[in-house]
Design a protein that fits this description.
Blueprint lengths: L6 E7 L7 H11 L4 E7 L5 H10 L4 E4 L13 E2 L1 H6 L4 E5 L2 E5 L2 H10 L9 E5 L3 H12 L4 E6 L2 H10 L5 E6 L3 H8 L3 E4 L25 E4 L8 H8 L3 E3 L2 H16 L5 H16 L3
Parallel strand pairs: 1-2, 1-3, 4-6, 7-8, 7-10, 8-9, 10-11, 11-12
Antiparallel strand pairs: 3-5, 5-6
The structure holds NADP nicotinamide-adenine-dinucleotide phosphate.
């Protein structure tokens, strides 16, 4: 029950009506018996600073941040976590001793996909498909886990080069175009293949990322950040070849679980979060 002492959490974005976070977070908060409520808070693209000030003044305990504010919110923070600073994106804000602290739980969420399966990353070769926002979090997560070398495959050379340059001091990172022979060679040498583009996402489920599946190692691990559908044709083909596959559900639930922990100091029931997520996705899928 919401009372006068219930603490407020939420997610800001534009648009925000499609967000799954209120359903996942409220289920976990309720199960943990915590007196919080989590709301979707639409914020106009030109009103970020005043909205953040207003939420702070109204006593919000913390909030998630989504498109288009993940980078624009950085100057409004009093401090940043290491992950948020490295990838220059904030997806979780904690109000701590009157200060706004920006975190990025996408990195931990991404790595949870490997940890859940007991897959070690140290010393492995990886390829990353795409160079957008999710790729930034994945790239830093891989580098933070002492991966040996990473090749980023892109269709827009300038974006790939900029992403690789941002992390050049952190490890062996390079970007190549999908039509470059070096991309084909990197894919055939990869232990880990991370797919971060929207190719294959609902409703365009037939779209395949530019990877020659036949050239991949038999024991390569393929990770697609997409969670609708639960199995993209990229993962389906990889599974048919006998490769281990990971979809984006764990990342989505785990980034939320990390935010929950930052706000409440408690670990939520992640399995419950995943179950609620799957049920809601199944309902949403029916609408496509
Ligand atoms: P984004 O910032 O728009 O980046 C998309 C990337 O994909 C860009 O590098 C873009 O290339 C590339 N791309 C798009 N269409 C392409 C095409 N037809 N051919 C080749 N490359 C293409 O998007 P994002 O925020 O990173 O999200 C990407 C995906 O990750 C989405 O499917 C999203 O649902 C998923 N995601 C999942 C989670 C999770 O928790 N599981 C979290 C975040 C994101 P250009 O630069 O050339 O445009």
């Amino acid at each position: 029950m919401i009372t006068g002492s219930t603490k407020l959490l939420g997610v800001i974005g534009a648009p925000i009506g499609h967000s799954l976070s209120p359903i996942i977070q409220n289920a976990a908060l309720h199960a943990a018996g915590l007196d919080y409520v989590y709301a979707a808070l639409p914020v106009r693209a030109d009103a970020l600073a005043s909205a953040v000030r207003g939420l702070y003044d109204a006593g919000i305990a913390g909030f998630n941040v989504t498109i288009p504010f993940k980078t624009a919110i950085i100057p409004l923070m009093n401090a940043l976590s290491e992950d948020a600073r490295r990838i220059q994106a904030v997806n979780t804000v904690v109000v701590e001793d009157g200060r706004l602290v920006g975190h990025n739980t996408d990195v931990a969420g991404f790595l949870a996909g490997f940890a859940e399966r007991g897959i070690a990353l140290t010393g492995k070769n990886a390829v990353l498909i795409g160079a957008g926002g999710a790729a930034r979090a994945a790239l830093w997560g891989l580098l933070r886990s002492n991966i040996s070398a990473i090749t980023i495959g892109v269709r827009t050379a300038a974006k790939g080069a900029a992403l690789a340059a941002d992390f050049a001091a952190d490890g062996d990172v390079r970007a190549v175009s999908f039509d470059d022979a070096a991309w084909i060679a990197a894919c055939s040498d990869a232990d880990i293949v991370v797919q971060t583009t929207p190719l294959g996402m609902m409703p365009h489920t037939d779209a395949m990322p530019p990877v020659d599946m036949a050239a991949l190692k038999d024991d390569a691990v393929l990770y697609d950040l997409i969670y609708t559908p639960a199995e993209t044709c990229f993962l389906r083909e990889a599974r048919a070849r006998g490769c281990e596959t990971i979809n984006g559900e764990t990342m989505l639930a785990a980034q939320g679980a990390e935010a929950f922990h930052l706000w409440t100091g408690k670990r939520p029931d992640v399995e419950l979060m995943k179950r609620v997520l799957r049920e809601e996705l199944a309902r949403n899928t029916l609408r496509y």
